[in-house]
User: Fold this.
Amino acid sequence: MTRDEFRAAAMDAIDLVTRYWDGLEDGPVSSDARPGALLAALPASAPERPEAFDAVKRDLVRLILPGLTHWQSPRFFAYFPCNVSEPGVLGEILSAGLNVNGMLWSTSPAATELEIRVLDWMAELLGLPARFRSDAPDGRGGGVIQGTASEATLAALLAARVRALGSAVAPAGSGRLVAYASHQAHSSVAKAAMIAGVAGGPDDREGLRLIETDGELAMSASALAAAIAEDRRAGRTPFFVCATVGTTGTLAADPVAAVAAIARAERLWLHVDAAMEGNAWVCPEFRSSARGLEDADSVCVNPHKWLLTNFDCDLFWTADRASLIRALSVQPEYLRNAASESGSVVDFRDWQVPLGRRFRALKLWMVARMLGAEGLRAHVRRGVEMARAFASWARADGRLEVHEPCRISLVCFRVRGEGPGADARTKRLLERVNATGRVLLSHTTVPARGNPCGPKRFLIRVAVGGTFTDERHVREAWDLIARELGSLD
Ligand SMILES: Cc1ncc(COP(=O)(O)O)c(C=O)c1O
Assistant:
């Protein structure tokens, strides 16, 4: 490609993206692709001769786009949002073009220093305690961008292990390590425990104990304390607890302050997974769930969910960078350099599992500057308002039961009634609404209030917060639900 051809193709690509966004207003949310359809349409081998951008673009439009789920559709309400934004896309383009690898300070000094500064900005915007900042008075804190919350949780768990044992390997005679999270915690906690060798598999309840929750699906602090005491009596070594603020199922928030008090008394590492809800902390009125963070060892938030920053971007802060670095640092000869050896720079390869790293700070910097704190707060507030409107319509409909408390930007509900009949009807409602192709909703299952060990109830989830979602889209989702409810049986 000549530079001129590249420039023209790049303009064309942006034009395609813009038209794609415009088309989302009326288009379907999900794809009706059949398994194997795209595989059958693609040649088995890569082309021998170079092809023109136009030819590739044609196939993108003809073959690929119809097989996508349109996460940026304003009527996408499944899982959690995965925000796009103009500054985020511009940041991605620039970072792709520059394509630097910021594994060490010396491999791109500005990439590292921009990341340090932007993470401090974000810590301030979210109202995080000063101990997580790179310039914390004791010099022990700091933030780093990880790809995902799963990587952040793994990094936290590995740091916790090093702090508990003095090394990554348990000294002879030390008891089995035990991690704790509520049974509503994200599956990435179990995955981290598996990867670290703390749990033998996803169902190993000795290495990772899933603590029962209260009626609001928040971790019971007294059950956590009892589990730790039981494990100590059995000769095991409790070392890590993950509190979730904004669970994936229902956005339930664990009581961080109470969990932190236990973690401190028991010398456990406390990691706070605020992947979704942490974004709401940009607004002071949503910060009550952050109480207790001043005693946490680490916290993660995903702006790629709800803070208008393109995927992927997870913010991970720790107040004990030394343990993190001890867990993740290796020093091959070929990466040795004077700056690292001077001890005066940060090498982010020591703060993450991979060595190489994308220049993700650029897009976050652009998002923060081009939207401003004001723009970020407005986005979160709009999402919360729309979710509240939806919840009020659902509460007013006697055929439905809304899961309470209905927190922040997520509404969970089911068809009223007890037993398998109500569950089956709720599932059917979800299938019918999604089959229209106009909206996409997802589901979760939760224990019934007051019966944490009993059968689970099926809930439909409506997660508001898409970049292009307006009240009319939320209204359309509600109208569809009400219509399908009317013809359920
Ligand atoms: C509370 C919570 N933690 C962790 C994750 C995993 O996030 P990621 O895909 O960034 O690993 C999710 C995903 O939705 C989540 O809701």
